[in-house]
Design a protein that fits this description.
alpha+beta; 5-stranded mixed beta sheet; single chain; 54% helix; 5-stranded antiparallel beta sheet; 12 helices
Length: 532
């Protein structure tokens, strides 16, 4: 068994494209959360602190506590403003000195100062120091306890601290880790235009943990969306590709020359336009193929007719040559006998002359009938010269013309024509057909000598028939008698001088008028008829 080529349907492609887009989108969001979220969050915090600094610096009076409280509550920023000596001007939170202290602590960390190696005379406790530890001097002298310097202040002026932090800058942003808060903070130290100092601080939320949680939620939502989306896309793509599958089946049927399938969709989109175009193409193709088939059929018929005519012409020439060969031979033989004085007596010479005259007449009759057949064959496919014709009167006249000849043969001709029948036809052709039928009856009538001519109406046509008593026609000769020079009994035909063209002429005359002819074996005889 041959392996079938792997084939991906259009519906499967839609589903795969959707799944790929969704997975790429979810993956991109997760990566962006992991890499960019913390940076964006810190940038926003820096912008918030910078905007807060600009707002505070632009205030006409730092005593505008309402605006400062608004900044602190809305943005979540701790604010501490003091003069160059460290005297508090505004603080948004209790223990605001802690902000200032932590800034100084951060300064030591950044500049690498080791306060433990500088001695204890520069350190003092705040106004409300914590309870002294065992062995510690309550006067506040000496360095802070090891590992715990919160609540201790080093005697460094505010202006010196700010100068070290700012340098030539108006403000400095400093991210650091706040051990007291147990997390990261972002602080801003600035020198205001009025000479005061501003210290801002805002907590930095654990963004990485939030990003990890958001990614987990995003993955869960993505899996649900992927399953539901695939189901929806699968159903929707099935509905969208159904007309395409129908068009594919129609195209396959058209390729097999089956034009019965039609697209039945009513949509107004591109697929609907394509379906209607396929229907038009199918209809036109069917019309052209049917026309081509008809032309091919006519061509085959014409070729067959041509071959048949050629065959009949060859047979006609052969039969005519055979028919003329005997009289020509007889005429030549008897003429030669007369020339050589073989006929010594006057009676013999008269006999020779009679034979020559009879055979010459027979040749003349054959030639005239051959010309008649040729004329009728040339007129095939055309229209005869029709005139109004009283057929009943014509039949009666022709029957009277054969009455004397019939009596000589001991036969009688009866006419059965109860009504007047008129037709439009070529009078000469119809007369020729009537005469040939009656002549044929006279040649084949038996000793009873009964010939009956009938004429009656059949619908809008007329039926003419000639019956003669005699032997029936065998089935084997039913087609032969209508052919040129067709003879059932050639010896009998030559005895009465027949040529074998009489019935052929009848058939061609009748068919020229669109009629039909035939014969019927009846009790004791045969009837030939034609309907015209």
């Amino acid at each position: 068994m041959k392996n079938k080529k792997f084939r991906v349907t259009l519906r499967a492609k839609f589903v795969l494209i959707f799944a790929a887009i969704l997975l790429i989108t979810i993956g991109g969001i997760a990566v962006a959360n992991r890499i960019l979220l913390s940076r964006l969050y810190e940038r926003d915090k820096r912008v918030a602190l910078t905007d807060a600094y600009n707002t505070v610096n632009s205030l006409s009076s730092v005593e505008n506590e309402l605006e400062l409280d608004k900044i602190s509550s809305v943005e979540g920023i701790d604010i501490f403003i003091c003069d160059g000596n460290g005297e508090e001007i505004f603080a948004s939170v209790r223990n605001a000195q802690n902000i200032f202290f932590m800034l100084r602590e951060g300064l030591f960390d950044r500049e690498g100062i080791n306060p433990w190696e500088e001695g204890g005379e520069d350190w003092r406790r705040p106004p409300e120091p914590p309870a002294p530890a065992d062995g510690e001097d309550e006067s506040g002298g000496g360095p802070p306890p090891e590992g715990d310097r919160h609540g201790w202040e080093k005697k460094i002026p505010v202006a010196e601290i700010a100068g070290r932090i700012l340098g030539d800058e108006k403000y400095v942003l400093s991210p650091r880790h706040d051990e007291r808060l147990g997390g990261a903070v972002l602080s801003l130290t600035a020198r205001l235009d009025n000479g005061n100092y501003l210290f801002l601080q805002t907590a930095m939320a654990p963004v990485d943990e939030a990003a990890r949680t958001a990614n987990e939620l995003l993955m869960f939502i993505g899996v649900v969306a992927l399953v539901l989306g695939i189901a929806i896309v699968f159903a929707a793509s099935g509905a969208a590709t159904r007309p395409i599958r129908q068009l594919t089946e129609i195209a396959g049927a058209v390729s097999a020359l089956d034009f019965s399938r039609k697209y039945e969709g009513k949509s107004g989109d591109e697929v609907g336009d394509l379906g209607r175009s396929v229907n038009i193409m199918s209809a036109r193709l069917e019309e052209n193929i049917n026309e081509l088939r008809e032309k091919n059929a006519r061509l085959e018929k014409d070729i067959e007719l041509k071959n048949s005519i050629d065959r009949m012409r060859k047979e006609f020439i052969a039969a005519a040559s055979h028919e003329l060969k005997t009289p020509v031979a007889l005429i030549g033989g008897y003429a030669e006998g007369l020339k050589e004085n073989i006929a010594a007596s006057a009676e013999d010479r008269n006999y020779y002359c009679d034979v020559i005259i009879d055979e010459a007449g027979r040749m003349d009759k054959i030639i005239r009938q051959m010309l008649t057949v040729a004329e009728l064959e040339a007129a095939e496919g055309g229209e005869p010269e029709r005139t109004a014709l009283d057929l009943s009167a014509l039949v009666e006249r022709e029957v009277r013309g054969f009455d004397i000849l019939a009596r000589r043969q001991g036969a009688s001709v009866e006419l059965d024509c109860p009504e007047k029948i008129e037709i439009t036809a070529d009078e000469n052709a119809v007369t020729q057909a009537i005469d040939n039928y009656i002549t044929n009856a006279l040649h084949h009538v038996d000793e009873r000598g009964l010939i009956r001519v009938s004429l009656r109406r059949e619908g809008e046509r007329a039926r003419f028939g000639v019956y003669n008593s005699g032997a029936p026609i065998p089935d084997s000769g039913a087609d032969q008698i209508w052919e040129s020079f067709g003879k059932l009994d050639k010896a009998r035909t030559r005895a009465y001088g027949g040529s074998g063209l009489g019935l052929t002429i009848v058939k061609k005359c009748v068919e020229l008028h669109g009629g039909s002819c035939g014969f019927e074996n009846r009790d004791g005889g045969v009837e030939f008829y034609f309907v015209i």
